[in-house]
Write a structure and sequence with these properties.
The chain has 8 helices and 3 strands; from the N terminus they run H-H-H-H-E-E-E-H-H-H-H. By secondary structure, the chain is mainly alpha-helical. It has 2 domains: 114 residues, no CATH class; 59 residues, no CATH class. It binds zinc ion (ZN). The site of zinc ion has 5 residues, from helix 5 and helix 8. Keywords: Membrane, Transmembrane, Transmembrane helix.
Length: 205
């Protein structure tokens, strides 16, 4: 009974969406991505399917042009205000500006498979109760002024999968220039000029 309910509520909308947006390219790569998503990364795919169902139930819409043959499902609306959110191979609120960032989260999940969500959850818990990131946090650029900011400017920017994605974003934008990722203190503080402040971002993905 429970299995039938899960199939009806999660798997059916997901299967429909995969076909509707033509998520997987008709190539060897598409077949490989599909295979990974439904074996090694199945837990992430199920989580993403649940996320998709919740979004559709909230009246959110698929964004076929954005994700056609990209190996993922895009939802036009944001699931969380001010943030693009990725779960498994489902992205809500993605834009051209954060596409590579969110795509990296899709790839991280495929790479780590069943370990991905536990490792992300563990890091959130660890950094929430034991804020070791406080030591290398950019307190000038991203001041922690209250409990909300503790999570949105602190924990969130330093958990491993976001730190990885933001570091890549900075490399995309600045190449090999010595610019730290958002939230990370510049290693050479004494030489910092006002111009260095330009890397601060309000991107939330
Ligand atoms: Zn992110």
């Amino acid at each position: 009974m429970l299995a039938a309910w899960a199939v009806a509520v999660v798997a059916v909308p997901y299967g429909w969406a995969v076909g509707r947006v033509r998520a997987y390219p008709p190539t060897g790569r598409g077949v490989a991505l599909f295979a990974v998503d439904h074996t090694w990364s199945l837990v992430n795919t199920i989580a993403g399917a649940g996320f998709l169902t919740v979004n559709l139930a909230r009246g959110h819409h698929l964004d076929p042009p954005r994700c056609c043959r990209r190996g993922r499902i895009d939802i036009h609306e944001q699931a969380m205000r001010g943030y693009a959110t990725t779960l498994g191979n489902v992205i809500a609120g993605g834009t051209a500006a954060n596409e590579r960032h969110e795509d990296l989260h899709v790839r991280q999940a495929r790479l780590l498979g069943p370990l991905y969500l536990p490792l992300v959850g563990l890091n959130y818990v660890l950094f929430s109760v034991l804020p070791v990131w406080w030591l290398y946090h950019d307190h000038d650029g991203y001041p922690i002024t209250g409990p909300g900011r503790y999570f949105t400017r602190g924990v969130y920017l330093h958990v491993w999968h976001e730190a990885w994605a933001y570091r890549r974003d900075v490399r995309d934008r600045y190449g090999d220039l010595p610019v730290p990722r958002p939230g990370r203190r510049h290693p050479r503080r004494t030489r910092r000029s006002r111009g260095d402040r330009g890397h601060c971002t309000t991107d939330k993905t």
